[in-house]
Amino acid sequence: MAINCWNALDIFSQLFRRDLQSRHRGAVLGFGAMLVNQLVMLALYVLVFGFVFRGRYGIIPDESGLDYALGLFVALTFFNYTAECLTRAPGLILERPNYVKKVVFPLELIPLSANCATLAQLLLSTVPLLLVFASATRHLSWAILWLVALLVPLFLFNLGILWLGSALGVFVRDFQLLIGPVNQVLMFGSAVFYSLKNLPAPFGAILQWNPFARLFQMAREAVLAGRTPDLMVLTVICVASLLFCWGAYTSFHHLKAAFADVL
Amino acid sequence: MNVLTPGPGPEANATPPEACAGYVIEVAGLTKAYQRWHRPSGRLTFAILQQLAQWSPPKLRERLLARRHAYCEDFFALNGISFRVERGKSLGIIGKNGSGKSTLLQIIAGTLRPTSGTVEVRGRVAALLELGSGFNPDFTGEENVRLNAALLGMTRREIDAKYDEVVRFADIGDFVAQPVKTYSSGMLVRLAFSVAVHANADVLIVDEALAVGDVFFQQKCYRKIREIMERGVTFLFVSHDHVALQNLCEHGIILERGCIAYEGPAEQCAHRYMRQAYGLSDEQPDESQPVVDLTPPEPNQTSQNRAADREAAAVRAANILHTAKARQGGAEMEFLAAAFTDPAGHPLATVAMGNEGNLSMFLRFNQGIKNPEVAFRLIDRLGNTVFCTCNGSLGHHLGDFQAGEELLVRFKIRFSVAPGPYTFTLEAGKRPEDRPNMGVYFDVIEGVGPIQIYDPAPDAVRPFYGMAQLPCEMERV
Predict the structure, then answer these.
(1) Which residue of B has its CA nearest to A109?
(2) Which of A192, B76, B281, B305 is the most buried (most CB within 10 A)?
(3) CA quadruple A249, A255, A259, A260: dihedral positive or negative?
(4) Strand B251-256 vs strand B90-95: parallel, antiparallel, or unpaired?
(5) Distance CA A188, CA A180 (A)
(6) CB–CB of A261 and B112 under 8 A?
(7) Cβ neighbours of residue B55 under 8 Å, at least 6 residues apart?
(8) Is B44 near chain A, with CB under 8 Å?
(9) Interface confidence (ipTM) of the complex
């Protein structure tokens, strides 16, 4: 097929734009709904985990409920990004049989554009809120820019999840049902509500190996304490995410040929 | 119109130089097998088994793979298809539903993988595989046009240059700005077709889709297809409409249960397909089960006329009733034999356009009938009755007949009809006294023949065009 690089870029940009648009098309509240949703969820979590269960991360001395809320907001934003990718992955190809069977389509671009659109949406809806929140709690510093570096491996992990998940979703239809529990496990297993350091002995050591937990923790530390991430750990996670992403891409590429037979 | 003719730059670049000569499409030994799974879970079990087999030593692998038939059976949608299409030529593929047409096109278009065999397509392919294929219903016509054009390999510049032309050709008004889900199926195919023909592709593949458009749009499409074929675009068309096939294609293939049943000029192809569709086989008629009883009748006493006897014997000898495809009736009166001959009495299978042929029918009355009518119809390949007449229409009164009497009639027909295959339908019956244009049929025999009318001088101006010649004169005033 005569689809070259520029062409792919053109198709990608169209897909990306539509992906962003389609989230708001037909919605009355549109962007506002996202914001309200975020705020309500955050308020609930802060109320329950911060004030009812009196959760504290213990990153800075004399951590207040609001500090906890800020840390939770950062971790939740990161988690939501991955969770949304996980949720969308199984249906991504499955819902577009036309692109598989009726036209010669560079299918790899669909998960890629979905990932970019999810990230863009998340950034648009949280960055202003984060800046306001951080300055209100006097945590605004240049260290907050580390979040960008932390998003790189997360982006790659999520891309891998989308490629792998969308390909498997075509073959295993009940894959979609598994995503709910997986999301819950990820949420509670990735130190969103607690700090890795506060965990009792065996769990802390085990969860150290969860790259998501490490990323969320590092993001929280960067915002709350202005701490530079452990570059060694970050590098290892980056390499791991790259490998995962590459593996997922290869699998997608192999499985792609059989999509038309199954859909 | 604010459209300038699209610059020659991108258009000239669009055709890769290697596609300029030889075959553009080469299909060799193409086979596509679909698996029919006995149980849905078999898919997964067998996939795991297959993976295990890959890792195991060859002997075990064979044994594992032999288990395959416990899980599924193969259905061959295509079975060893091979053909080639030259650059700028057109090929039509015709066949009944389920003969593998669409599978074949999908493989050539590259959306489906063959089980074995190879497909080589040189150049850019624009495929219109199904109604609105590749269109996203939630997005507007314009967005879909742009995405589809990009998928067909057009650069943004080319798309911008051609966009207005595409929309003008589709001619769907302001609907381009509306989501595609609000379109009628006709509008959808208009837009999709418009994108496909304007994509500067080297190969254009169209699958039935055109049938949805109205007559005007279809004609516009045919004109456009011819126009782009003149530019050297190779055209592949799939249909079960033989008329469209003849209209658009030079060559044709008849697909039957995944195999090529016939390959040749499009006209031949269409004829053959028609004959199949109407149940006329190309083989010699099956003698073992004649539709009409051929046992010689008992010698008759009533016939006085020796000449008539001889004629009846000749009709029996040249009988063509065994070619009939269907028969109804035969109780009150029946056809014993029929012959189609030239004026000298030699059996005919072909007649030059405008020449004469004699249709003789030999009948027997099994009960007394007053004023019977004997009629024939000339049926063309589309099933139209081109002409029908009977003794009453021609001013012959046959009189009354007793049971056991026989009748021999001869129609002299001048075949001023379009060239092509025709069949006869023979009818025997009578008119109700109060309804002169109604018939009560006693014996009807369909599908007798076929006979072929041919154009004796294809290079000369034809005496008429259309289905048949009407008496017509012209003078200059």
Answers:
(1) B151
(2) A192
(3) positive
(4) parallel
(5) 13
(6) yes
(7) none
(8) yes
(9) 0.75
